[in-house]
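Summary for the funding panel

The consortium committed to producing paired sequence-structure records for every protein in the target list. Below we show the first two records in order, beginning with the earlier of the two.
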Amino acid sequence: MLVEPAALELLASLADGDALLDAAIKAAASKNAFLVTHAAVDQLLSAKASEKKTVQIVVEHASFRAPAAEMNPDIKLDVNRDITDKSRCTGTIENFRDYFRDRFARYKRLFHELPSQIPLQPIARVRTATDPHLRVIGMVANIRGTRKADLLIEIDDEEDTLPCFVGARDKALFDKAKEVLLDEVVCFEGRMYNSLFIVKDVQWPGIPFRQKRVADTDACVALLSDLHVGSKFFMQENFERFIRFLNGDTDDKKTAENIKYVVIAGDVVDGIGVYPSQEKQLVTKDIYEQYKLFGELAKKIPDYIEVVISPGNHDAVRTAEPQPRLPAEFTQDLEDYPNMHFVGNPAWIEIHGVKFLIYHGTSLDTLIPALPSLGAGYEFPEKVGIEMLKHRHLAPIYGEKPLVPEKRDYMIIEEAPDVFHFGHVHKNGYADYRGTSVINSGTWQSRTDYQIRLGHHPSPCLLPVYSLRSGTTKILNFS
């Protein structure tokens, strides 16, 4: 029996690929066919996915009473930093003006907090200054190379524009300057030469070194993202194993019994029309049905566990960021559950005094190609998270991905979070950076045809569990 290369590649990306191959060979043999095609494997996947729609999870609650059930929840949702019910943008010139003014003003405060013996000065004053040690901030309006392969970066402030020169001969400085992004606010140190500012150093706000904040509780937080319920690549059996784990059906009861919180960073469903030919890979093309399937799974989470749900680019909200919470018309099955909390994207929450920044991560698709240091960013998403913290912005480049020019720039990282949790790229990643735990929680979807074409290698069903007492992350494998 022959197998198409495309079919082999699809089978290799699936956890149950061997079993599906056997089934495909039997199906082909029954039709006197000599070739297992990609379409045949796809058809088997669809049939299997349709069966999943009616699977019932049987959970025994009575036999397991976790210590977390006796813990009082301590969770605060920061509504002031959540766009939900606050979007007033109509796309006018004034909206854009106010948006960028807000971005500049708040960055200005961040840079003033940085220790330096050189005072910050506005561009107008720098232009006429003769001091050899100057410091200026501005929003990056343009970046271009010169004929001699040097860099010319144009920055603006509220009143003026300044062309800034970075010479290629100083390789360390030149490489650093190549990390400057359009539309972000950056600080340069240097001197004036005629009408050019000669850059001697590049600074970003960054986050300060600090001791990791912990809490006096054994409560733990399970971090998830990118479930993609409704896709035939959603690994439902594995996710059901996770649900049973939360309900005590596990050998690792010590971990399960202390999980008091579940935080989901977007893409709870696969959505419709998100990428080309997506409809061929859906269990159901009804978006309401997709959320109903998700709701049936979420209801099986023990009611003593507080669940925080944020949207992503596959969810039924506007694609432009910041995104409001999931509309109640899609989550009506869960609205009456007091332990279910819906927030926007991004969102800030505080759990037992530990501050979490939740962001789906759509801007990673823009940042990875824009920053030379992130060549392998899809394989190591934690490195992208660290860069966001350095630049103090979740999506600094305007226009690459849709951003709404609200009066306030909700994408600025105003303070250093204790935990930065994001997803989107379907690849787990973890790092500690200056007292912040940077965590990408991967996915619960197997490798799709689209990801194969892009060359992405997901790490499905790896669950990060964050200990509030120790500030450490444990990884549970449900694959």
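The next record, for a separate protein in the list, is shown here:
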Amino acid sequence: MQKHLVIMVKVPQIGATKTRLAAGIGPLAAWRFYRNTTTSVIRRLSGQGLSAKWKIWLAVTPERLAAGTRFWPAEHVLIEQGRGDLGRRMAKPMLDLPPGPVVVIGSDVPNIQPRHIDQAFAALEGNDVVFGPADDGGYWLVGLKRRPVFPGRLRPRLFASVRWSTEHALADTIAQLDNRYRVARIDVLSDVDTAEDFERWRKS
């Protein structure tokens, strides 16, 4: 069954991209970081031989600008993120894509490697949900097995009542799951949302 890797991306715009980071390092530096990191992550996860492992979908916002930019690699399918908070936008591909396990990541985690995606899909062979925890209490990856008998209603509910952009995001999401669902975790990574995150990453 086809494995689906969804990368959540924004059209890079100075002043509208990575606004929390921009508040600390400036809009231009934040734009450069996001553009370079996004390019690197997409290239790294679609390298030689990886297209046979998973299909990449780029979930893009804002939709009105996505088709008019040459920033995205032509070989990847662009899909709309849709409206709503982060949870609703992550749930959309989980509901809309063809059958098969789906893993969703952001593009602002510079240290993502293909082995992390391998770990996530391997975890879904024996579990219903997988998370890649972030060191700030959030998560940089979430994946669902999406069996035919897997309740479709779980996908939107999984992301309900989550305090996004806080140290509670992962715990809030896991709290939506009851004992019917087997949950796995893979490696802890750091995303870059603030100037402090940026400095730690730059020095690493």
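Regarding this second record: The chain is about 35% helix and 20% strand. Helices lie at 19-25, 27-45, 63-66, 86-96, 114-123, 154-158, 169-174, 195-203.
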